[in-house]
Write a structure and sequence with these properties.
mainly alpha; single chain
Length: 381
């Protein structure tokens, strides 16, 4: 799934909030997370029905892998206002890839199945839901951050949206609002506070949390028959839950997701490792691996995973494939579709309509008040 932006995000530009051009700590985490995304997608192709340990692994992954991706994306989107550059970034790194890969996946499905080509931008295809959701989070988070209690309000909205029956998978609306608290949390937490996770005691606690959680899920996974709340894409009614049960299950997912994502970050190395460059290319891995997962399922390769040695082999092969998809030569080949050069689509400053005689240039709302300070600090375009 994620993910593109933790996959897609770049640091903000204001001096008070700026991060290094590439943060090795988060890039290391993003590679681990994108491997978990690919593993989860493969496990869902029948492996969980054949093997209890595979089902346990699947449930454990889905407790935190997307919350972690979203949190990291939010951490690099800490603006309280929108600028021309940030809006253009949303277009180029979320909306354009979503449209391009919707067409590519629909075309591939048509060629393989022989069915008529069907391009659906309303109900995002499988893993592509993350891209419109990312665009929405970037647009609505500045609204939350300008409120007095942004995290609390986003949690109330996330819990309450589950009561609305018509809110579901279309346009990723359910996931946009139910998962937004992780994005808001990432946007609110300061780099200095987050760095406390790298202290020795926090690292030991993070390792313990991951180990204990994995053990508990392994022991009790039989009681979790792929509940809908793992996917965040439907309301409580479609999950056959009462309002109280829905609040309780989603609330528990918020707590578990936050604790486990922080635990994962705590155990990640902060130095630049060989996987950091792959984590920086996680957008490529995210968008491309779905074709291979579908192919492995179509040609029966996933059906070969029937025991623990087969599962281990699948994990090794999946990791190797993710490494290959993040390699420089694959990025070079795929760049025209993953990051197409469409600068002609973007409005430039000199495209502004001439100001009326005697009037100054009309400024957008973010040029006023505290938004003007952000524009000034960002430098000229």
């Amino acid at each position: 799934m994620s993910s593109a932006s933790a996959v897609l995000d770049r640091p903000t530009e204001t001096p008070s909030q700026a991060e290094p051009a590439r943060d090795a700590w988060h890039d290391n985490a993003k590679f681990v997370l994108i491997v978990l995304v690919a593993v989860g997608h493969l496990l869902s192709k029948g492996v969980t029905e054949r093997m209890g340990v595979a089902h346990a692994l699947y449930v454990w992954i889905y407790l935190f892998h997307m919350p972690a991706f979203i949190f990291i994306a939010g951490h690099f989107s800490r603006r309280r206002s929108l600028t021309e550059r940030s809006v253009q970034g949303i277009v180029m790194r979320a909306i354009v890839p979503f449209i391009v890969f919707t067409v590519l996946y629909a075309t591939a499905a048509s060629l393989v199945t022989g069915n008529a080509l069907r391009i659906d931008l309303v109900n995002p295809y499988w893993l592509l839901w993350f891209l419109p959701a990312l665009a929405a989070w970037k647009l609505i988070t500045p609204v939350y951050l300008n409120l007095r209690w942004p995290l609390a309000i986003s949690l109330v909205v996330g819990l309450g949206v589950g009561l609305i029956e018509r809110v579901g998978a279309d346009f990723s609306i359910s996931r946009i609002f139910s998962l937004a608290p992780f994005f808001v949390l990432g946007a609110m937490i300061t780099p200095e506070s987050l760095r406390r996770l790298t202290q020795p005691l926090a690292r030991m606690a993070g390792a313990a949390v991951l180990l204990v959680s994995a053990t508990l899920v392994f022991l009790f996974h039989d009681h979790i028959a792929r509940p809908g709340y793992l996917f965040w894409n439907n309301g409580y009614d479609k999950q056959h839950l009462t309002a109280l049960e829905g609040f309780a299950s989603r609330g528990a997912m918020y707590v578990l997701g936050a604790v486990l994502l922080l635990a994962l970050l705590a155990v990640m190395p902060t130095r630049r490792t060989w996987i950091a460059g792959l984590g920086a290319a996680s957008l490529y891995i995210y968008l491309l691996h779905g074709f291979l997962v579908r192919g492995a399922s179509k040609f029966g390769l996933v059906d070969l995973v029937t025991d623990v040695p087969g599962l281990i082999a699948m994990l090794v092969v999946t990791t190797a494939v993710c490494i290959a998809l993040g390699s420089p030569w694959v990025r070079k080949l795929a760049r025209p579709v993953v990051e197409p050069k469409l600068k002609w689509l973007l409005r430039r400053d000199d495209d502004e309509d001439p100001a009326p005689s005697g009037a100054g240039r009309d400024r957008s709302w973010e040029d006023r008040g505290h938004g003007g300070r952000e524009r000034a600090s960002s430098g000229s375009r």
